[in-house]
Amino acid sequence: MKYQLSNRQLKELRQNGRPLSICLPAPSDLPADLVRWSSTRLPDVADAITGAVADEVTCHASTLPGVPGAAGLFGTIRDDWDDDRYCFRVPVVVVSLEPARIRGGKLRRQWPGGAIVEPNDAKQVDSPE
Question: The organism sits in which domain of life (predicted)?
Answer without folding.
Answer: Bacteria
